[in-house]
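The data layer described in this paper is built around a simple, fixed record for each protein. We quote a single record here, exactly as it is kept in our systems:
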Amino acid sequence: MTGSRALQPAAGNAPTVRHITCYFDVISPYAYLAFERLPEALKGVSYSVAYTPVLFAGMLKHYGQLGPAEITPKRDWTYRQVLWLAHSLGIALKVPVSHPFNPLPLLRLAVACGPEGQGGTPNRYACEIILRHVWCDGGEAGDAARYEALLQQLAPARDVQGEGVKAQLKSNTEAAIAKGVFGVPAFEVDGKIFWGLDALPMLREYLFGSPWFEGNEWDGVRQVVSGITRTR
């Protein structure tokens, strides 16, 4: 990955499997780009990933924030930046006809593709199909006919409209917020949260044992005092 040093495991040490939780919402182009780049970021690491669908809007509501697409200049910049990032990274990306859109049907589909009782975490194949459905052909993400074709292709074992699936998505979102997740994509490992596409090099260095993470910088930032509080 650009910006990361070539850290390698110590010679003679057996690789330790690192368990990573990837929180994502299909509405986020950064989540899509990070999903596509994750295998490269984890090259050389022995790992497992739990792809966990969450509702980004639920996080925005919890923290009292507007989404990037709800602020007009930021919305325009977001689309420009992700198109440039996709170009520079060699990843196919086309912005959907309408954005933002209601991601709930696609998020519930993702949950329904995962096994019951394990957080509704779908495998990478299902996530890839759903994310590329949104971000690769420039169509209407919520189009009923396209959704039906996607449903037939993935053939989830669980009922997409079932109360169990709906409850699992809500539970995923609440659990993520409880752990300090505030946006997507986010990657949790060893209780640490790495947020965003641009955090992948940082995540990689942590997984390869960079000594930086043994210092005070990670937790020390909590000691920074807020000098002013803006009134809404």
